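Page 47, continued from p. 46.
Same chain as before, 230 aa.
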Amino acid sequence: MSALKLYIGNKNYSSWSMRPWVLMTQAGIPFEEVMVRFDSFGPDSHFKATVGAINPAGTVPVLVDGDLAVWDTMAIAEYLAERFPERALWPRDAAARARARSISAEMHAGFTALRSHCTMNIEADLREVGQRLVAEQAGVRSDLQRIGSMWSECLAAHGGPMLFGEFSIADAFYAPVATRIRTYGLPVPEAAQAYIDRLLALPGVRAWIDQALSEHDFVAFDEPYRTSRG
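Result:
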């Protein structure tokens, strides 16, 4: 069995990179991390040259398994679920598994208002920005309402502590959402807030956050609300 390599971007900003990294770390799947820091993203940039050599889409994350490269977070998650069936990355129950896939796909394709207005920034404290966005952006309020009700329903149906009882791909997919809610101080129901606290305390999630806080990079195009760190 070949060693896995996971190509990722900056931990402070790259929500898509966070998902498979947290999934593999929390599930105990060994891999080598290859960090490709964000730069200009121009055609001659280091980022595009490095990532484009293994992924024609030129994006992270990319999972490399021997001669095989798998990109797109959902594709990586499904590949890992097939390669490591003993890890039960999806719920074992068929109905729960279908629901987990549905809400993961919903995250993958939706919540565009939250993702565009509340870009991931683990290091920043943007609670004042969050208050303004909730007041002014109906799409952000709608996304938050859907996420809060979804999480509360899943937790009630499966008893927690994670969305489907045990940690799964669904939790990894929503980990960056949890960091956004904390960064921007966004309102969610009590059950959803308690889930955020548990999710961010998981060793795999905590490790990502700690490493994001130690980066100290400032990528201007990922900073719509700040002109510098601090």
